[in-house]
Each structure stands twice: as structure tokens, then as C-alpha cells.
Amino acid sequence: MRGTPVDEVRHHLTALLTGKFEVPPEAVTDTATLAELDLDSLARVELVVTLQEEWGVPLDEDDDTLDGGTVGELLRRVHALLDAAPGAGDPDPS
After folding, report:
1. Is the CB of residue 59 less than 8 Å from the CB of residue 44?
2. Span 6-84: which CATH code?
3. Long-range pairs for 49-53: beta carbons < 8 A, 24 or more residues apart
4. What is the pLDDT of residues 44-80, one digit of tens each?
5. For a Cys-Cys bond, which of 23, 35, 47, 56 suits 17, CB 3.0-4.6 Å?
6. Are 36 and 44 in contact (CB under 8 A)?
């Protein structure tokens, strides 16, 4: 969705990491890597699928952002994809 505020993306990503992946909220920082949050390769694929389903962003599980990247890099990537993708929209509340 064009014009999605970065804080909205940050809030949703943090809620996803803390809710679905049981990451402690204080661990979700811009400099934390997904590996530091104990997201193994399977969890990262699940994260990609969830972001694709909820946001409609065309992320790929081979994206470098997911392999060694930080939460901040993932946040910026998702935000850029939301701004660029005409079909991306608000997160699915379910």
C-alpha cells in the first residue's frame, strides 16, 4: 500500500515476531539479526510466507535480507516493497 508509514510496518513486524515466533519484545531491535532472534531457516521461510499472506509483499525466501540481515533491513525492505507494489495492502487482521 503506497504511503504505509514505516512505524506501522515496524509495529506489525514486531507483533509478528513476538506473537508467532515468541521472540521477546526487547530483543526486536533494528540491529538484531534474525539468527540472533533464534529464527532458523525454516522459521525465516515461515516469516516470508506470513508476510506475503498478510501484506501481499513479493518477498522471496532467498532474499539476502532474511539470511544474515537485521530486523531494520527487513523493515526497510518490506516498507519499500509496500510502497512499490500496487497489490500490497493493509495487514490481514486474522
Report:
1. no
2. 1.10.1200.10
3. 50/16, 50/20, 51/16, 51/78, 53/92
4. 889 989 988 988 888 876 666 677 789 999 999 898 8
5. 23
6. no
- Domain ranges for the chain: 6-84
Handedness of CA 58, 38, 92, 90 (dihedral sign): negative
- Which residues are paired to 70 by β-bridges? 33
pLDDT in tens, 26-43: 999 999 999 999 999 899
Task: Please give the grid coordinates belonging to residue 63.
Answer: 532474499
Instruction: Compute the distance between CA of residue 74 and CA of residue 72 in angstroms, rounded to an integer.
Output: 5
